[in-house]
Write a structure and sequence with these properties.
Structural class: alpha+beta
CATH class of the largest domain: Alpha Beta
CATH architecture of the largest domain: 3-Layer(aba) Sandwich
Number of helices: 23
Strand content: 25-35%
Distance between the termini: 154 Å
Number of strands: 47
Shape: flat
């Protein structure tokens, strides 16, 4: 039988999960349905419920349900477990079918869609064909659902459940909103509960059959039902009960009457159940129980061999049992289980390999007698269905449970077919794979003796030699190589013979010189396509047979070229290569050296040496070949150096050139050509350690080149790659500017480029602007241009690429101005990249080199000035709100923060809801120069028109300032800074009062004051006015008056005040009340009236006496 015969079925090895079928989803053409499906199946984390989902059409045909058996009286089972049963319940028969249907509670076609949904549910029930599978409906809705039990949704949900014959727990709503995944997770939990109910029902159904069984004829059914109960418990995620049922099934399977015809079926089912028990024990973190179960399993089954003519099948089965347990053990370790040296998966892989060896030996013995026998026809292993009905049965007698086979002839041909197939099994590959797994495990768990025992015991020479090379066991390596060379000679394996000769001639070999000389002469014979001399200790008859094989090999044509990868060996020719520098300019020849050294007793001749590079176009310059009959020779113990040189291509600037390999050709076309191939820059299995030792030795003893004229091979370093960099530019780039830059100004950076080349620099290009790689926001707030005559707009780029500058002759100087506009503050790094091409010659070859020089500068950007704005009354008192149609003042203050003098050329206002109270606004800052820290202020008289819509807050407009640096040229563009004026809060006053009075008064002289009272409302206003007495004034006029003012009209009241004291005096307070506007705060009217006035002293009248005295 083939190796696949013993593989465990995938449905047994996987983790059983509840199967839920989703219908009604069009995941191909409907984006909403696709999003729902992705939410179910994509990125499922470990914390989500274990469910296997599958989208099926609504009319999908599920497997037919067999008629329920009511009696087992005359029933005789044909086998233990059907091959399709596990797959059926994992992937074909769902625990729950969910119908998705798009329907909102307020859908205008509710009746029609309700009927359609009920029809779809009935179709699903019909296709399930009396199975216990649950059915649920999910309504896909566009709106967020209302809480349950409210209004229309509750009524229609009840009606839909009645129409579809569903319980309320089987109807769900899925709103397609931003929280789709959250709703899906809640749905999954509900589906999981329905699935568990289904599997619980199935467990009870299977258990109900037990009362109809008897142990005389229904032994197989006891095992089958226990297995099914355990499997359903796993699907229900009840692993504790599943483990209990599997243990019971395992005990029952070993109580079956075993004979030669059913032995394979019993072992197969025992292996399945044992696998399940061990897997669950590891899952429950009880590894000792798993190991104890497996040992018990092996003890019970190792003697159940079955047919003697198919004894190799028992070894194959035993091997698979150990391999499967090793894989389970390894999987548990990856999930966190801790293994130890004495108990790890390696021992089980080792035992599996031992049984595979037994299988190989038994197959050789049992299949030897059928040599030359043809495969029987018709094929006894073919079945009508293409597979077995029950696990572990023979294809030619399925369902047969009696002790004797029904047809002796068929039994004979079936055994013959199995033996012929076993003859073609690659036993060695199976053994090596298992041993390799075992060695890897022993290496992982620090079991070097077990690892070496396995390797040496099974003659895995390559594996052993690799370890011995790494660990530098030269004596052991030489002994194994000697044995391997003798084997290669006896098998006439030319390539292996050459490889072993090369290593035995190398520096790692401990052979004596005369032995090496003999091996080298044999190697030369093989390279000359001659038969080598026999190896010592070879049996004469074996040597004679080997000589005949060698004669056949040498006579064959077309097999005279061999390529040997020597990197992982220690050959007799050592090779190291290096580029002479880690980088080369493109106008310099690239130079590399290849060093060769021979460790054999006699000189070595070769005919070709070639270096392969990552760019294959350079390979033609890195080849050296022998000329004519002369060959190149390397003397024993001497180092020979070969130099190569080539010119790089300009398009490779910025690229890395690597050595991909070195090839040395031994032999000739007339004999046999052997190409020794090194990867990269050479070296072999021992080079790294030798280089490390050499570096330590040189540091310890202070070696010097003067003391050692001969090259020290171990200290030679390999340089496998080099970088091609651009030619060194011979130009100077100078920048001149006046930092810092000011926001929004056209900041000038002068660029001076001078050529120091000996030839004309052609195609000179400038890339200037913000250096890439900085904050992305800087790219949006930085603009670069070459035109300084006007301020650039926001569409100007942050980097100007490849601006042509023409040609530069030797010594010529070129100047350009680059203007930068920075909208925001902060530091910026600017790049000035000058590129050009120039003709030059390298080793007689003319090339065009592209050169470039970069200059960077960091410029800080500052705000030129700070502007503060405030609104005040006409008495210069701060305002928190502005009255409609009453003048007020706008005060602006500009504080210079620039280190350079600023010239303010003009200023202006752009007003929105307010207007100027003067006929024409005129700037008060024309041609004003501000030094650092100086201020400039302006004042504007404004008014809010009466027809303005009264809102809480309104925008007033913008304040525009035109300026430039004082040091800039008069032709430079002006920068306009826009300051948004603050919003103001408007209020409507029903009454406006203002006073007319002189600018000053005089003691004891009449001071006339006229009060103008305006009614700003559409109603007649009654105004009560009263003047409070004052110690500083006497007055004439009505102390208390009551006025009636018509809408939009004005009344005037005149008083004559008589000052009594000099100085700043408080005027008599005027109290006003509005009976028709009780909510209005009349105290606010006082802000419109003058509060104080300056009173001069009374003047002295000149008299005659004073004049006479004068």
């Amino acid at each position: 039988m083939t190796g696949s015969q013993w593989e465990l079925p995938p449905e047994l090895c996987c983790r059983p999960m509840a199967f839920v079928a989703l219908t009604g989803l069009d995941v191909v053409y409907n984006a909403v349905h696709r999003a729902i499906w992705d939410a179910f199946c994509a990125n499922r984390r470990a914390d989500r419920v274990p469910i296997s989902f599958k989208v099926l059409p609504g009319d999908h045909e599920y497997p037919k349900c067999r008629t329920k058996r009511t009696s087992y009286e005359w029933y005789i089972p044909k086998g233990i477990l059907k091959t399709g049963w596990m797959n059926k319940h994992l992937n074909l028969v769902p625990a729950l079918v969910v119908l998705f249907y798009e329907l909102d509670w307020d859908d205008p076609q509710w009746k029609e869609k309700q009927s359609e949904c009920a029809t779809k549910v009935e179709i699903v029930r019909t296709s399930l064909q009396s199975r216990n599978t649950k059915v649920a409906v999910v309504l896909i809705q566009k709106k967020t659902p209302l809480p349950p039990g409210r209004g229309l949704s509750s009524e229609r949900a009840s009606a839909l459940c009645h129409a579809c014959d569903l319980s309320g727990k089987s109807l769900f709503v899925l709103p397609h909103t931003d929280h789709l995944v959250g709703y899906i997770i809640r749905l999954e939990n509900a589906f999981y509960e329905h699935a568990q109910t289904y599997y619980y029902t199935e467990i009870r159904r299977v258990k109900s059959h037990k009362e109809f069984l008897n142990k005389t004829t229904h032994q197989l059914l006891f095992v089958r039902h226990q297995f099914k109960t355990a499997f359903f418990s796993e699907l229900k995620q009840d692993t504790q009960n599943a483990l209990k049922y599997y243990r019971t099934a395992y005990s029952l399977v070993h109580e079956l009457r075993a004979h030669e015809t059913n032995m394979l079926e019993i072992k197969t089912m025992a292996g399945f159940i044992n696998y399940k028990i061990c897997r669950l024990c590891f899952q429950h973190n009880t590894p000792l129980d798993a190991i104890a179960q497996f040992r018990k399993h092996i003890d019970l089954c190792k003697k159940k061999i079955g047919s003697a003519e198919l004894a190799f099948e028992h070894s194959a089965w035993m091997s698979k049992q150990f391999q499967s347990f090793g894989e389970l053990f390894d999987e548990a370790i990856k999930l966190g289980l801790t293994a130890i040296q004495t108990q790890n998966p390696g021992f089980y892989y080792q035992q599996a390999a031992c049984y595979s060896q037994d299988r190989k030996q038994l197959a050789q013995q049992l299949c030897q007698v059928i040599a030359g026998v043809n495969y029987p026809s018709p094929d006894p292993l073919d079945t009508q269905s293409g597979g077995l009905d029950f696990y572990g049965q023979r294809p030619w007698r399925q369902g047969h449970q009696s002790i004797d086979p029904p047809d002796a002839e068929k039994e004979k041909t079936g055994i013959l077919a199995l033996q012929i197939k076993e003859r073609d099994v690659p036993h060695s590959e199976l053994i090596i794979a298992l041993l390799s797994n075992a060695v890897a495990q022993f290496k992982k768990y620090k079991c070097p003796r077990m690892k070496s025992h396995l390797s040496a015991y099974n003659l895995l020479l390559d594996y052993v030699m690799c370890d011995y090379r790494t660990e530098r066991w030269w004596g052991l390596l030489t002994a194994i190589l000697t044995t391997a060379l003798r084997c290669a000679y006896l098998m006439a394996s030319i390539k292996d013979y050459i490889i072993y000769c090369m290593e035995l001639l190398g520096r790692a070999s401990t052979l004596k010189e005369e032995q090496k000389s003999r091996i080298e002469k044999n190697l030369i014979k093989v390279l000359s396509n001659e038969v080598p001399d026999a190896e010592p200790e070879c049996d004469p008859s074996s040597a004679s047979a080997a000589r005949s094989l060698w004669n056949d090999r040498t006579a064959l044509a077309g097999s005279n070229e061999l390529t040997i990868e020597v990197q992982d060996y220690i050959p007799f020719i050592q090779c190291k290569a290096k580029f002479q520098s880690p980088s080369f300019h493109v106008d310099q020849p690239i130079q590399l050296q290849v060093f060769l050294r021979a460790d054999c007793p006699h000189p070595v001749s070769f005919n070709k040496l070639a270096v392969s590079l990552s760019n294959q176009e350079y390979n033609q310059w890195c080849v050296v070949e022998s000329s004519g009959q002369d060959s190149m020779t390397v003397l024993p113990g001497k180092t020979k150096c070969y130099n190569f040189s080539f010119v790089a291509k300009t398009e490779d600037v910025g690229k890395k050139i690597e050595m991909t390999g070195i090839e040395l050709m031994l032999g000739s076309d007339s004999g046999r050509c052997v190409f020794l191939s090194w990867r990269g820059a050479g070296g072999d299995a021992a080079s790294a350690h030798e280089a490390l030792q050499a570096s330590r030795s040189s540091r310890r003893w202070g070696r010097s080149i003067e003391a050692h004229q001969e090259l020290d091979w171990d200290s030679l370093t390999m340089q496998h790659s080099t970088m091609i960099i651009s030619r060194v530019p011979k130009i100077s780039v100078q920048l001149s500017h006046q930092p810092p830059a000011l926001t929004n100004e056209m900041y000038c950076i002068s660029l001076t480029v001078q050529s120091q080349e000996e030839a004309v620099a052609k195609d000179v290009k400038l890339t200037a602007g913000l250096k890439p790689g900085q904050d992305a926001n800087l790219g949006q707030t930085t603009h670069v241009t070459l035109d300084g005559s006007e301020v650039c707009d926001d569409g100007a780029p942050a980097l100007l690429p490849d601006v042509p500058l023409g040609e530069l002759k030797p010594g010529e100087k070129l100047e350009r101005c680059v203007y930068v506009k920075c909208v925001s503050t902060g530091p910026r790094v600017f790049l000035f990249h000058v590129a050009y091409s120039i003709d030059t010659a390298v080793e007689g070859r003319h090339i065009v080199c592209k050169c470039h020089k970069d200059q960077t500068v960091t410029i800080e950007t500052l705000v030129p000035f700070e502007v503060s704005v405030k609104f005040v009354s006409t008495k210069f008192e701060p305002l928190d709100r502005v009255s409609v149609d009453i003048p007020f003042l706008l005060m602006t203050d500009i504080l210079s923060s620039s280190p350079w003098p600023l010239l303010l050329t003009s200023s202006s206002l752009q007003l929105l809801t307010v207007t100027s109270n003067t006929p024409q606004l005129q700037s008060q800052l024309q041609e004003v120069v501000l030094q650092t820290g100086e201020r400039a202020s302006e004042c504007f008289c404004l008014r809010c028109p009466p027809q303005t819509n009264i809102n809480n807050t309104v925008a007033t407009g913008q304040y525009l300032i035109s300026w430039r640096r004082k040091s800039s040229s008069p032709d430079s563009p002006l920068i306009q800074t826009t300051v948004t004026l603050p919003h103001v809060v408007l209020e409507m006053v029903p009454l406006y009062i203002h006073a007319e009075l002189p600018s000053f008064g005089r003691v004891r002289e009449s001071l006339p004051v006229r009060y103008h009272i305006e009614n700003r409302t559409a109603l007649v206003q009654e105004v009560e006015m009263a003047v409070e007495p004052s110690d500083a004034f006497m007055f004439s006029g009505l102390k208390q008056v009551r006025l009636r003012i018509l809408p939009s009209s004005e009344q005037q009241v005149v008083y004559n005040y008589y000052p009594l004291m000099a100085g700043y005096q408080t005027l008599p307070q005027l109290n006003i009340s509005l009976p028709r506007c009780p909510s209005f705060n009349t105290q606010a009217l006082r802000r419109f009236l003058p509060q104080r006035i300056f009173v001069k002293p009374q003047g002295r009248q000149p008299d005659d006496a004073s004049i006479a005295a004068a």
